[in-house]
């Protein structure tokens, strides 16, 4: 079960990928995800980890790191494609503020397949608010 | 006050980063990854990699530190408390694995102003010890100039 990439390659959704095909990932960030991500990434901006500070600067409370949410978008693609080597490029626009405790849905659709590269459009939405919009990924199909 | 555009084109000294196995595991866990390639040395080696593989978004760790000096550069002049991360793009080459030595150079790609917002765009280029480009990044930060 450990890392049998060849098996993933044979079974991966991206093989035989067609325009219109969809990918989806759902995740509910727990209350300490920003603390772990701050340590892992080195981004200790207090708006992500200090409830009082966040409220003082006019936020509803601690908010998610945009790059953590982008990592969920990246994961939606690598999991659908069968591994990290398939993700060749990802661009995103950050919008709304992500909160902990509420489900985030990453949803994408294959726009086109050019040779061995699929172009996938996606968004990340939480409680009806887009945290990431206009995400575009290039995913290798082999 | 208009945006300082004279810093466009400015580059910063390369930032080097030694990729560690436990740091990859810590990062992968923090973003809810479960692929054994990120955690299990044997699985990574069985798949042909020298050591555990860094998730693509690990670029934030090795390239992000190259952007920091640009963000705080007085010549660029970002009003830091009013800054928002507006957009991000990464383009990846060969996968980064534990043991790699990554060198990242940051450049001020563009500074512009429109619609009461100032846009600061930085580019990073990250290469490994074999001079292969493992990632290029475009980091767009926005500062509101009107409240």
Features:
heterodimer, A: 142 residues, alpha+beta, Thiol Ester Dehydrase, Chain A, five-stranded antiparallel beta sheet, 4 helices, 5 strands, 33% strand, disordered N terminus, B: 147 residues
How would you briefly describe this protein structure?
The complex is a heterodimer of chains A (142) and B (147). Chain A has 142 residues and is α+β, with helices and mostly antiparallel strands.
Task: Assign the CATH superfamily of one domain in chain B.
Answer: Hotdog Thioesterase
Order of helices and strands of chain B: EHHHEEEE
Number of strands of chain B: 5
Mean residue pLDDT of chain A: 89
Instruction: Return the CATH architecture of one domain in chain B.
Output: Roll
Poorly predicted sequence stretches spanning 5 or more consecutive residues of chain B: none
Distance between the termini of chain A: 21 Å
**CATH topology label of one domain in chain B:** Thiol Ester Dehydrase, Chain A
The Rg value of chain A, from CA coordinates, equals 17 Å
Helical proportion of chain B, percent range: 10-25%
The SSE order of chain A reads HEHHHEEEE
CATH class of one domain in chain B: Alpha Beta
Largest sheet data of chain A:
5 strands, antiparallel
Shape category of chain A: elongated
State the CATH superfamily name of one domain in chain A. Answer: Hotdog Thioesterase
What report would you give on this structure?
The complex is a heterodimer of chains A (142) and B (147). Chain A is of the alpha+beta class. Chain A has a domain at 21-30 and 64-140: Hotdog Thioesterase (Thiol Ester Dehydrase, Chain A, Roll). Chain A has four helices and five strands, in the order αβαααββββ. Chain A has helices at 5-11, 33-41, 51-56, 66-81, and strands spanning 22-27, 87-94, 104-114, 117-126, 129-140. In chain A, β4 (117-126) and β5 form a beta hairpin. Chain A is elongated. The two termini of chain A are 21 Å apart. Chain B is α+β, with helices and mostly antiparallel strands and 147 residues long. Chain B has a domain at 15-19 and 54-144: Thiol Ester Dehydrase, Chain A, CATH 3.10.129. In chain B, 20% of the residues lie in helices and 35% in strands. Chain B is built from three helices and five strands. Chain B has helices at 21-30, 41-46, 59-71, and strands spanning 15-18, 83-92, 101-114, 117-127, 133-144. The radius of gyration of chain B is 17 Å and the shape is elongated. The chains are: A alpha+beta (142), B alpha+beta (147). Chain A binds chain B through residues 1-5, 27, 33, 36-37, 39-43, 57, 66-68, 70-72, 74-75, 78-79, 83-85, 87-94, and chain B through 23, 26-27, 29-33, 35-38, 40, 42-44, 46-48, 53, 55-57, 60-61, 64-65, 81, 84-92, 95, 138. β2 of chain A pairs antiparallel with β2 of chain B.
